[in-house]
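Predict structure. Chain length: 185.
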Amino acid sequence: MVNAIKIFKESNVSFVKAGPKIPKLDQIDLRILKIFFKEANQARGPFSASTVELSRLLNEAGVEISQPAVSNRLSRLQRSYVILRHSIRVDYSKLGLHAKFLVRVKANPRVYDAVAQDSLAPMQEISDLYRTGEEYGLLAILRVKGVSEFNSFLVRLYDSADVIDTYTTLVLEERKDSPTFLTLE
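Prediction complete.
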């Protein structure tokens, strides 16, 4: 971490970036999120329920709340970006994408955002892209058919003069791919 901060400071990169205001979540909001995570884990897929069903589950958990109140809370959680989007889960192997790689990218610190937005984000092999606080400050998760497609990806990646180095990990097997919600108690 100290090494990463040193690199950024030497390159005059600012760490301050204003983000959205973080809403205060009460125990009912956290209980709603916990139900979504629990149901998604049990069903091995995204949980989708009506506000009536969610109200019933909350009442069973000892939280007395009406359906309109649940609807209002869900709307507020969406407006405040706590709930970002509804999604589906995909079995990538059924799409012919059998290899998953975690690629850490070391780029010129002055242009991390440009490398992320202009070079990496448009690459269709990348399913997720994160900025980390490490020397290899960008982390991409990508899925490809196999090693030759991964090699083609790397060749295109290194076409950018701002990409300095990469560090790659091949995922052999996914052991847990659904989110878990920490206990509230």
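Summary: The first strand starts at residue 99 and ends at 107.
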